[in-house]
Specification:
Order of helices and strands: HH
Structural class: mainly alpha
Largest sheet: none
Number of helices: 2
Shape: elongated
Number of strands: 0
Oligomer: single chain
Strand content: under 5%
């Protein structure tokens, strides 16, 4: 009888330690994801800043000249592809 109680107690304690270990791993993983997201946001902001710097350095006149050189035409009122109503729900996700 005492042997069964010892085995069950050991199993319960082992299970508790295992669950605490899983919880610790989950919290660490969540923290790593949060840190990676913060780093990605910083990189995104830096990328936007660099894009703005490049556009400012090139100047709008040079971009316009390059576009005209490649036979591109500025469209003041662009018309985009129509969205079929049956796909409207899918586009919400």
């Amino acid at each position: 009888m005492n042997g069964i109680l010892v085995v069950l107690s050991t199993g319960v304690l082992g299970g508790i330690f295992l669950l605490v270990g899983f919880y610790n791993s989950t919290v660490t993983f969540s923290h790593n994801i949060s840190a990676a997201k913060t780093e990605l946001d910083a990189i995104s902001a830096e990328n936007t800043s660099l894009n703005n710097t490049i556009i400012a350095a090139l100047g709008s006149d040079q971009i316009t000249t390059s576009a005209q050189g490649n036979n591109l035409v500025e469209d003041k009122n662009p018309h985009y592809f129509p969205v079929d109503s049956k796909w409207l729900l899918a586009s919400q996700y």
